[in-house]
Every structure is written in structure tokens, then in C-alpha cells.
Design goal:
single chain, five-stranded mixed beta sheet, D-Maltodextrin-Binding Protein, domain 2, globular, alpha/beta
């Protein structure tokens, strides 16, 4: 009996010792990993940011010092649209760009080396149709036979217009639609050259402001959930995984500030992007500023690619496979629950 007790006690002590060694090894590894990460030199990352509220996490991370805290020497270039930022990414002028999902879907038909790191903002209330009341427009059906301007083909505003017309039993054949550079659209509406426009921010608000009481507004109302994402090239992702993790940590810190101190976060976005504070405040509750990589993004890319293919915006026998474009390694390392992509 005594012998059995001694054997059991000995086994218990050995088991405890093994467990203790494992725990110490894990703690040592985590400590080493943290030291290695913090002792590595800062990464210079050129970020192309579309200067609008939906990319606010980039502005906050810069203004609040989150990039510097995470050892990212961020060189931020601001753009009027995500398309312009994406073009400079492809030209090698920036390392990371912020862009909506529609240009990503279009890019998938042309190249396979784009990598989506994360979604950083979304809204289902930003896109809108703004029309002139003095052109006889009061309800959506009044758009039949009218001239509508929007951004270039296969863009987020174009996709929204497609959904909007479908909702009200119309198609692009019921009116004359022109595709323009984003900077020209509002001017065409104000001058009366077109009867209405379909645009996202900041152009929708600009048109409403310039038309005043003559503006008729048809809002999104949950019709289309637009995302803004940070993307890079396969080459940069493979060569600079630590830099991507640091950028993600900084953006996650910025996300936390939007919840703990929204007034300060709003002020930072207004200051960084030179947007009137009142404009940022008025749309803040419409935005979801969150770092994630969701399965819903893959579904949206498939839907929009199919729309481009069927509508003739692209000539292709099939839509791209977007799964290989999802760079899950970054968020997997930094915040695994934020990744819901099915692999």
C-alpha cells in the first residue's frame, strides 16, 4: 500500500514538473517573441489612403501615434478615391492601398497578385442618388428618360446604381447613363448638364450642399453594404509579413479608440483628411470602423464580378477565384477571431 502511494506521488511530481516546464517554455517563447518584435527596426510603409471617413482608422492610427507605437514609419499619401490609390499600388508608388471591394473585383479579372489584408470600414448608408427637383424629379420612377452621371464603369457607385434601379423596376436602358471621372460628376449636376448623379462620399454630400433646396436625395437604405479594405501586392506580403502585422496592430488600436473616445477619433479624422468636422460627425454613426476579414467580403466580390461579366464591363469566360487573394496570415497572427474566411 505504501509502495503504491509512493509511486503515485512520484508520478504526480513528475507530471507537475513536466507541466511546469511546458508553461515556462511557453512564457519564455512569448517573451522572446515580444522582445524580437519590439527590438526589430521600424518598418517604412507607404500607405495610399482614400481621404474619406470610411478609411478613418488609417487617419486615427496616424494622428494618435499608433503607427509609431507599433514601429511603423507610415508615409501616408491621400487620394480622392480608392481607385487612384490602387493605381499607385500597381505602379509601385505605395506599398498598401485603401480601396472598396468593387475595384478589387475588377482587378481580379486582370491580375492575380493582389492581396487583401483586411477590411477596415463599411457602411450601407453612404451611396446615394442626388437629383435636381427643377428637372421634374420627385420619386425614383421620375428618373426614367433622364440623364444620370456616375463614376467610371465597374465602380462602387455604378454597382449601387444598378442595385437601385433594379429595386425600383428599372434598368440602365430606361435612361442615359454617363461614366465620368469622379471629380467631374458634381459639376455636371450643378450645371444642369445631367438630371441626377449616383455617387459615394464625399461627392454626394458636396452635391447636396451645392444644390441646397433643389436637391432630391434617394439614399442607400441598406441596399448595398460598401466595404473599404487595405490591399497590397503578393510580393510585398511575402517579403514584409512583420510590417503587415504591425500595420494591423496599429489599426486595431485605432479601432479601440473609436469605441473608448469617439469625439477624439472624429476630430482626428477631420484633421487628418481636412474634412469639415460637422461632416464627419453627421456620418459617423453610419460607419462601421472595424478590422476584419469576413466571408461576406468573398461573397460580395463574387456577386460584383458576376455583375461585371454579365453586364459586359469585362470580357471573361468565368469570374476569378478570389480566395487566393485573401491574405489571412496577418490577422491570423494578430487577431485570429477577426478572420471568418472559410478556407
Amino acid at each position: 500500500m505504501t509502495y503504491n502511494r509512493e509511486v503515485k506521488n512520484s508520478s504526480f511530481r513528475v507530471g507537475t514538473l513536466v507541466a511546469l516546464v511546458v508553461i515556462l517554455a511557453v512564457v519564455a517563447f512569448l517573451a522572446w517573441n515580444s522582445i524580437a518584435r519590439n527590438s526589430a527596426p521600424p518598418d517604412t510603409v507607404r500607405i495610399g489612403a482614400s481621404a474619406q471617413q470610411i478609411t478613418g482608422l488609417v487617419a486615427i492610427a496616424d494622428k494618435a501615434g499608433d503607427f509609431l507605437k507599433e514601429k511603423v514609419a507610415a508615409q501616408i499619401t491621400q487620394y480622392k478615391s480608392g481607385q487612384l490609390a490602387l493605381a499607385d499600388l500597381e505602379a509601385g508608388k505605395v506599398d498598401i492601398a485603401t480601396v472598396a471591394e468593387t475595384p478589387i473585383a475588377l482587378d481580379g479579372f486582370k491580375r492575380d497578385d493582389l492581396r487583401v489584408i483586411a477590411t477596415i470600414g463599411s457602411t450601407d448608408k453612404e451611396e446615394k442618388v442626388v437629383a435636381r427637383a427643377d428637372h421634374g424629379i420627385a420619386v425614383p420612377s421620375d428618373l426614367k428618360g433622364k440623364k444620370i452621371a456616375t463614376q467610371k464603369q465597374a465602380t462602387s457607385p455604378h454597382f449601387f446604381l444598378h442595385l437601385f434601379l433594379t429595386k425600383y423596376g428599372m434598368s440602365d436602358k430606361d435612361m442615359t447613363i454617363s461614366f465620368n471621372d469622379s471629380k467631374d460628376v458634381v459639376g455636371k449636376l450643378v450645371s444642369g448638364e445631367v438630371d441626377a448623379i449616383a455617387m459615394s462620399e464625399p461627392y454626394g454630400s458636396e452635391a447636396i450642399s451645392k444644390l441646397g433646396s433643389n436637391a432630391i436625395i434617394f439614399r442607400n437604405e441598406g441596399l448595398y453594404n460598401r466595404t473599404f479594405n487595405i490591399v497590397t501586392t503578393a510580393k510585398f506580403a511575402s517579403e514584409h509579413p512583420l510590417a503587415i502585422e504591425r500595420v494591423l496592430r496599429a489599426l486595431i488600436d485605432a479601432e479601440a479608440l473609436t469605441k473608448s473616445d469617439a469625439p477624439s477619433a472624429i476630430q482626428m479624422v477631420a484633421d487628418e483628411y481636412k474634412i469639415p468636422l460637422s461632416d464627419v460627425k453627421s456620418t459617423w454613426s453610419d460607419l462601421v470602423l472595424k478590422v476584419s476579414l469576413d466571408q461576406s467580403l468573398l461573397s460580395a466580390l463574387d456577386d460584383q464580378a458576376r455583375w461585371m461579366q454579365e453586364g459586359g464591363s469585362v470580357k471573361a469566360a468565368s469570374i476569378p477565384n478570389f480566395l487566393p487573394m485573401m491574405y489571412t496570415q496577418g490577422l491570423d497572427a494578430v487577431k485570429p477571431p477577426a478572420v471568418t474566411i472559410i478556407r
